[in-house]
Design a protein that fits this description.
Largest sheet: none
Shape: elongated
Number of strands: 0
Keywords: Membrane, Transmembrane, Transmembrane helix
Number of helices: 3
Distance between the termini: 16 Å
Length: 74
Amino acid sequence: MKSIPPILLSISYIVLFLDCSLRRSEKLLKISKVSYAWKTYRKHFSRSLDFVEIIVTILFSATTILSAVFQPIK
């Protein structure tokens, strides 16, 4: 089994973190356009597990991308 170069892991984590941040800001932008913005913000972003969910999403996405990149060519 090939080991994954650390630089590739670092780049993939950075890209996935930025993607996650952009999606979060898009949600905030949509929320700011509605009249019940504060209630919706509290419902979606004030949970204590929010940070954990983002980390799990990043790790899952990174492993999916890396497994696709390092698949053996048939």
